[in-house]
Amino acid sequence: MKKLIAIAAVPALFLVACSSADQTATNEADSPAAPQVDEGNGTLDHPDFLRKVADPTNYKVTREPAEHRGSSVLSTCGSTDDSVYVNDYTGNLGVSTAYVNAHKNPVGAMESSASDASSAKYCSGTLIANDLFLTASHCIDSSTVANDYIAFNYERAKGSTTVLTQTHVKITAIVEDGLGGLDYAIVRLQGSPGTTFGTTPANATEVAAGGTLAIIQHPARLPKKIEAGTKTGNSGDYHTYGNIDTQGGSSGSGILNASGQVVGVHTNGGCTSSGGTNSGVRMSRIAAASNIL
């Protein structure tokens, strides 16, 4: 069994679910016609998360965009990165433009200072309540509360390289971190940014193999991008997907189902030009461990 990392002592909380999708796709739950593919038993833990589990007291986030740092494992599936800046998206990746417009605002970039500079950005995540932000555990360390922020509206204007005005919100507490030995974390933000940017509900219902998944993310410290594709299957605690491109900086992004609900947290690159899959922790596993979700 994996080691339990840490949780801050907090009162009971309730998940706020608002910001509905502008489309009518239904959840793609398991069914006899579309069985889950189980490829393994929890072998996909991110190297940084393994460092954290091994020595949580001394763990420091590598605040630079690199999946599987120091290895040759990439995260672009195939020869081309198909991700698109959200405001330039035309609906060609399998989800509609209305879907992206409905679900992009709660997505934020974690940053090491309240700065508009791309160099400050290092991970991604999603507002799941007015003051709660879901991300990856390996994006959190002992200096997160003292130093770090979330940047919202870090996007390019449509048809332009101009970056829109960002809002920087202070991280005030680590609410959950690595419960159940899972690479996820929930942090509390100052104020109530969800009332401005909306929130995304979580759904622990499993998406079937072949079902639609989308990731709205900040890859490689870039302004917000959309990538979508299909689920390959399950590998232990993880969803796997072989046609959804990510990069360093995408860690912590919510994995969305066809209805725009968070069904997982993206954590790992694993795709190469010739195969492989990227992956993220399944919400069904997170919900079983969490006191909030």
From TrEMBL:
Pfam families: Trypsin_2. One of its GO terms (molecular function) is peptidase activity. The keyword Signal applies. Keywords: Hydrolase, Protease, Serine protease, Signal. The keyword RNA-binding does not apply. GO terms for biological process: proteolysis. Residues 1-21 form the signal peptide. Residues 26-50 are annotated as: Disordered. It comes from the Bacteria. InterPro entries: Peptidase_S1_PA, Peptidase_S1_PA_chymotrypsin, Peptidase_S1B, TRYPSIN_HIS. This is Serine protease. It comes from Pendulispora rubella.
